[in-house]
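Example 3.2
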Amino acid sequence: MQSSPNTIRQRVLVLGASGFIGKRLVSALTSSDWAVPIAAGFRAMPSGFGEAAALRIDARDVTALRIALSEADCVVNCVAGDAATIIASARALFTAAASCSPAPRVINLSTMMVYGCAQGTVDEQAPLPGDYDGYSAAKAEVERLSRQYRNVVHLRPGIVYGPGSWLWSGRIGEWLEAQRLGDLGSAGLGYCNLVHVDDVAQAVLVALRLPGIEGEAFNLSLPTPPTWNEYFRLYAAALGADFVSISRLRLKAELYVFAPPLKLMEMLSGALHLRRRVPHPIRPWLLRLCAHSLRMDVTKAERVLSMQWTVLDEGLRQSSMWLHAAAETSNR
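Structure, written as tokens:
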């Protein structure tokens, strides 16, 4: 969908623009020939947003959102945080958007976790119990809240990896290099529904402009996801790290011996603003996810949004380069 030189550019309000996906999305919008992004966040926007306008806003404030939406044609909800923040900001957004004329299109960044504890392959028609954890429940509640607002599109990404992903590409990469993660045996046979951050951004760009998809939802993931063991093996190779087997005894030590003091050190380091990085603890939720057999059907996103996925080898190459560059920078 290329625009002509005389096309008026769409003003796209990006809520949660300072987050991992938000930053990448603002960059993609800036690079387009049809959008003018407005990077909005709870705190003052950091540098690095290029030509994008910056806006400081509390996404839970209906009045502030109404004012912001009066200057925008559409909005993308990338707001992160705890469950209460996720729900309150979505409720405020749908309330504010409903008062606008015309009603702006809302792209809501949901998650695969809305499917909760479901097993096997799920498509977009599957129930959304949100019964996996508090985050899962909050995201499912957001989709329920949206039912009274017609002009909304939900994107449900899986594990969003790539440059800038401090959790799925950063911490996991560090754990692999330190041989704290590896082949988990039967504990790592769940599906790792990976999706590159640039693919998520591309899905947003298409969903902002494609007519006739109001009220629809789209799963975003590699069509043939690896198991977590396979992801760890492939990423270790991209990092140039030895890939080792992790015994059940070692996993128990990580969870119950190493994790508590590491978590305390992490909290103290943050409170004292120490520059020295503390090794991150491996938490039980990660191992629970590694055994989860949920697999998303993405044929709808391929058919309707014309999604073409970043090849995993290329995504892991980019991730490893980013992680090594970040490590060099932090060691200077």
